[in-house]
Specification:
By secondary structure, the chain is mainly alpha-helical. Helices cover 39% and strands 9% of the residues. The protein has one domain. It is globular, with a radius of gyration of 21 Å.
Length: 271
């Protein structure tokens, strides 16, 4: 019988750390992570980010390679992953394809909405290759994420980025399954802390239109939460609301006011 050396034991121990991750089916988002770190600029402590689309243009081949790697994932393989890894994959796919779609017209656009008009809006263009099929941004968001019944996760609205100033910040790192919960919570807190998009004034809440458009997603029992008001009550500190302020005992106790959305492109300012 072959005698095990100290080196063999060390290699065996390392394998126990490495191979379980592979077994869980974690997708390699390292290229997307690198691109985000290089071409996304954080402002106000991460509450806001601006995108260097010129930098992404220079690295478009690398972005394209990442998108190809996403397209090669088979549905059966995807379903074998943990739910957190599935959701991280879909969020990254949405955000990466949003960048790619902007690049098809950049720099000749002021807003992502300039790409296509209703009913053929940018979000309905089936130019995305996933699971051996053609998808649109709407398909990823409303069918794969919101409509799948698998996730019931309202905080995705602070992770998906629509390339507009009014959107939650594009996180300057890839989402990954093993850290997803903390990443979603961090993105949510940063968005709600940004006083240009959510604030408490004179007894009323002035909040992003996201809460109006997707209000139903905050009514599905996540952490026992069944309304936008109850969800926001978890983030009093971020909203600068006194902790003893009573939220949601009555439907009209805290008036909700929805702010106008800024659809301007979230590019780096050239002041």
């Amino acid at each position: 019988m072959r005698k095990l050396t100290y080196t063999h034991l060390v290699l065996w121990a390392m394998s126990l750390l490495i191979f379980p991750l592979i077994g869980l089916g974690e997708f390699n988002h390292s290229e997307w992570n690198r691109l985000l770190k290089e071409h996304v600029v954080s402002l106000k402590g991460g509450q806001v980010t601006q995108v260097d689309y010129d930098g992404f243009l220079k690295d478009r081949e690398e972005l394209g390679n990442y998108l190809i790697s996403l397209s090669r994932v088979e549905r059966l393989k995807f379903k074998s992953w943990e739910k957190s890894e599935q959701l991280a994959f879909l969020i990254n796919a949405y955000n990466a394809w949003t960048i790619e779609i902007v690049l098809t017209r950049y720099p000749n656009l002021e807003s992502i909405r300039d790409i296509g008009l209703f009913p053929f809006s940018v979000w309905r263009k089936r130019v995305i290759k996933l699971f051996d099929n053609s998808y649109s941004l709407d398909d990823i968001e409303h069918e794969e994420i919101r409509g799948s019944g698998l996730f019931e996760e309202p905080r995705i609205h602070f992770a998906l980025n629509c390339a507009a100033i009014g959107c939650p910040a594009l996180r300057p790192e890839a989402y990954v399954g093993r850290h997803l919960d903390q990443q979603l919570e961090d993105s949510t807190e940063l968005f709600l802390t940004d006083k240009s998009r959510n604030y408490f004034l004179d007894g009323g809440l002035y909040i992003s239109s996201i809460f109006d458009w997707y209000g139903e997603d905050f009514e599905k029992g996540w952490l026992g939460i069944n309304s936008v008001c109850q969800f926001l009550s978890l983030y009093k500190r971020q909203l600068d609301v006194s902790l003893d302020t009573k939220f949601c005992r009555q439907a009209d106790e805290i008036p909700l006011n929805y702010l106008e959305y800024d659809w301007s492109l979230n590019r780096i300012s050239v002041d």
